[in-house]
């Protein structure tokens, strides 16, 4: 089976959404910060198993501190959300529980994967502890710079989408 699914990357400014996307699609990384204005869309086919492929159409949406301000047209039709936070900046995940509740209220049938990026800059155990204190179950801690867990995240998203298809 081969299907196409829309994935939306969400998160604060500067958390590394675009870097994760470039690492996954192009296997590249740059330290140069470029602000995403509006939305940037890329796609990549993921082979889940010998008979199943998913083309992920990934929307890299501009960052915002207020999740209620995302344009509904960016989120409409999403099959999955990937919520990205910066593991080195607690302010980007201090309101994670609130933002997740907002997403679930507005899009109750869309799964959310939570990924802490820039784990190469921090003690991962401290980040895990902070998330546990918020009672938030993260999906992954990753690094777009090193590639840690980036490929696995998107493969798991694709596999889940096939299960729900």
From TrEMBL:
Q: Which InterPro entries match?
A: P-loop_NTPase (IPR027417), Small_GTP-bd (IPR005225), Small_GTPase (IPR001806)
Entry keyword set: Nucleotide-binding
UniProt GO molecular function? GTP binding; GTPase activity
Q: What CDD domains does this protein map onto?
A: Rab (cd00154)
Q: Does the keyword Nucleotide-binding apply?
A: yes
UniProt KW Nucleotide-binding keyword:
yes
Annotated NCBIfam families: small_GTP (TIGR00231)
> What's the name of the protein?
Small GTP-binding protein, Ras family
The species is: Dokdonia donghaensis DSW-1
């Amino acid at each position: 089976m081969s299907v196409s699914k829309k994935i939306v990357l969400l998160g604060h400014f500067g958390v590394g959404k675009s870097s994760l996307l470039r690492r996954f699609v192009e296997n590249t990384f740059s330290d140069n910060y470029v602000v995403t204005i509006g939305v940037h869309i890329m796609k990549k086919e993921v082979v889940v198993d010998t008979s199943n492929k998913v083309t992920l159409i990934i929307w890299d949406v501009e960052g915002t501190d207020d999740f209620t301000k995302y344009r509904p047209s960016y989120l409409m039709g999403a099959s999955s959300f990937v919520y990205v936070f910066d593991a080195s900046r607690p302010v980007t995940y201090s309101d994670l529980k609130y933002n997740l509740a907002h997403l679930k209220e507005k899009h109750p049938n869309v799964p959310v994967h939570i990924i802490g990026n820039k784990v190469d800059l921090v003690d991962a155990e401290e980040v895990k502890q902070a998330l546990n204190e918020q009672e938030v179950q993260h999906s992954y801690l990753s690094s777009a710079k090193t590639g840690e867990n980036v490929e696995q995240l998107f493969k798991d998203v694709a596999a889940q989408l096939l299960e729900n298809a």
